[in-house]
Amino acid sequence: MNPIPTADRLRVMTYNVKGLHLSRPDVVAVVRAAAPDVLGVQEPPRGLLGWLRTWRFARDVGMRAVVNGRGARTTALLVAHGRSVTGRSSVRLPNLSGRTNRGIAVATVDGIRFVVVHLSLVRDERAAHLSEVLVDHVATMRTVVLGDLNEPPGGPTWTSLTTVLVDVDPQGDPTFPAIEPRQRIDAILRSPDLATGTARVPSGQPVQVGSDHRPVVVDLHLPSLAA
User: Fold this and answer.
1) pLDDT at residue 1 greater than cutoff 50
2) Are 110 and 130 in contact (CB under 8 A)?
3) Which SUPFAM superfamilies does this entry report, sorted A to Z (predicted)?
4) What is the value of pTM for the model shown?
5) At 71, is the pLDDT very low, low, confident or very high (cuts 50, 70, 90)?
């Protein structure tokens, strides 16, 4: 279960859960062990009852789904009980490749704007979507982006994001594939006015079998939010 909420810290996690198709109990175990206050989900359950499956997943990890389904499509945002949530929205992104319909989840949690992304495997579509996200949804203050970037560091996506935001784990462990990870394609990025502790990529048997990605977890320190 999540710890009692604190005023000066948010534990933040990003996790591609592969639709909960591989091992739902292990994904639940991974999230519960990390005990995040904010969880950005990529590849949540989809389809006719996808929203219900995500709602049940949130319940089982002791959180609530504040952005779930509809325009968010390939993303969702879960938040711990006791945290203030405002300005939540799901945003559809244009399908430029004829492949997966994508979207982003956006909400403000305890004064911090969170944007959850699952960028395209197609480079041109990825660039177009990122441009829209940066222009319309990413601010230079009190903003955190959580996501599966589908690109390793050094690529144009990372370059564009780190021009505005700070990678919380620039020397971090790889996140994909989960069993023997070779690439770091999952990330948490924050605006320069925010501070974080040491990020980590969880390991162990549940991480290896729950999904095809490993999550990233970091504590976000909030000493100046009341200023």
Assistant:
1) no
2) no
3) DNase I-like
4) 0.94
5) confident
Distance CA 68, CA 174 (A): 27
Share of the chain above pLDDT 70, in %: 95
Structure-block tokens of residue 50: 């996808």
